[in-house]
Amino acid sequence: MTQDWIAAFLIGILGAGHCMGMCGGIAGLMNLGQTNVKSTWLNPLFYNLGRVASYALIGAIIGGSFSTITQYSGINSPLVWLRIVSAVFMICLALYIGQWWQGLTYIESAGQSIWKYISPVGNKLLPIKHPLYAIPFGFIWGWLPCGMVYSMLTWSAAAGSAKQGALVMLAFGLGTLPFMFMVGISTGKLQTWLRLLIVRRVGAVILLTYGAFQLHQSISKLL
């Protein structure tokens, strides 16, 4: 599984431009009205730690649920089939990040039905009065409907256990953390660079190549 952790971490880094588009605005609210220099970097840090923790929890839930289902499904090579699904989602994610195809927005829209009940809880924590409050705020916002997160959750489903599912999502979350932290402390030049279409498409091509490789490897196991 080490290979999956490394790949998930790199995907988090490569998808930084998309993460900034989805969560950059809310990350920028961490220091709203802050005059304490220490809080201006602790708030974004704790927010991101909370967000990553939520990814790990979701990964554990998905990984554990699907591992239980596959044990009793009676389907031959169930994890291989899940790997194929995750590879397809990875290809879709690459097309999404590269802005060649936006099909994952339909999945994000489906998640909005739940998010509308969760987001008001997070909004009550604003403005952040103490850095520790940023942890639950980030944990709540980790459930924001996101095609990239949903794509990674298919990896958790194929991980084979709750522990492995959590570790896949933890690695992914840690990959997103450096750029999202820097966005939170308002590094304007970084945000401008990440918005460049060429930067997003270079990352997308790498993801597309990796997804195609995983798809080929998984299908080969069934032949």
TrEMBL record:
InterPro entries: UreH-like_TM_dom (IPR039447)
Key words of the record: Membrane, Transmembrane, Transmembrane helix
Stretches that traverse the bilayer: 7-32, 52-69, 81-101, 133-153, 165-187, 193-213
One Pfam family named in its UniProt record: DsbD_2
Residues annotated as domain Urease accessory protein UreH-like transmembrane: 7-211
PANTHER family named in the record: HEAVY METAL TRANSPORTER, HEAVY METAL TRANSPORTER-RELATED
Name the UniProt record assigns to this protein: Sulfite exporter TauE/SafE family protein
Biological source species: Vibrio algicola
Upper taxonomic lineage: Bacteria, Pseudomonadati, Pseudomonadota, Gammaproteobacteria, Vibrionales
